[in-house]
Fold this sequence. Notes:
Order of helices and strands: HEEEEEEEEE
Shape: elongated
Number of helices: 1
Distance between the termini: 61 Å
CATH class of the largest domain: Mainly Beta
Number of domains: 2
Number of strands: 9
Largest sheet: 5 strands, antiparallel
Radius of gyration: 25 Å
Structural class: alpha+beta
Amino acid sequence: MIDRLRGTLPTVLLASALLAAAACKENLYTEPPYLYNVIGVSARFRSATGAATLISFQSFLDGVPLEPVRAAAGPISDTPVGGSLDELAVGPHDFSVRVVSQTASPSPYILSDIKVSRLNRSDGQVIEQRAWMVEVPATLADGESITYRVVW
């Protein structure tokens, strides 16, 4: 009987080791599946007429500032906008850019080339990216925003 147990012992140990490894593999990811580490949002914000009217602006995601108010050295007509958040739940989100000040109010603007990227927290490399090649026009007075809904 002991000889028979010795013959099955390696098989039992191997099976136990494989089950333990499978259980550990499932628990390697501690991040909830509906949250991502770092999310970057970027877009272009430009004058619809090409005139240099924009002086200061700020971008938001779901009402949360992605960056402090940015002021240009002088009036500009085109600029990249965006920033990052530590976490973002899966689903629809409103990305917006608010005109803080401009040379003429109201002025027509276009929000375009919107991208949302999931970034590796340790090195900032893009893991996944979604892009919306749209042009969203709006005529904005000081303090008004242009908004586009992205789905992440």
